[in-house]
Design goal:
Length: about 220
Amino acid sequence: MTFQRARRPEHKRQRYEAILAAARALGTRQGVRAVSLADIAGAVGVHKSALLRYFETREEIYLRIATEDWPDWVQGMRARLAGVAVGSVSEVAAALAATLAERPLLCDLLTHASLNLERNVSLDAARAYKRATVDALAAVAAEIRTVLPELSEDDAIELVGAVNAVAASLWQAAHPPPLMQALYEEEPDLRVANFPFEPTIARLAETLILGIRAR
């Protein structure tokens, strides 16, 4: 940007998008937990107080990014399941795992959403995020039912919600901080909970599907 203070509507919109882009890049590179409001302001090139004209808190910025990323995941699942043979449990499980693995920031955000992002935002921001979440789960569930029509709507939504909950936890275990990585390299027998993300999600998703179908 060539302007310091955004006054015109188009400049304000550019500043808004720049804040989200900077937060997204920092979160992807450093992990959401490590990024502060000051870090985002520095990346945008403004004082921290300038960010508060657009977002009330750091948590609101990341909750907004999560809100925007849900539809992208829906599109990813739709593309992945296109042409998959009806009844293919393994393909549905693989699609869930692959599309989440392709979206590392979303997986990281899933972890932090309930832990802290939802705890320091406005009611409007929380409502927008929850609405996007509900809509995304329903949309992905509908895509899954085109391949597994024997699942009820509630069954499919339960499956998608459960896979996301597991992914939120497993992402952190599968991507440990440098200290833990060094420890695992020195003592591999301690790597008991350091599961590979995508194959583990695929295996667990397939198990969930088979269990739901057997009820």
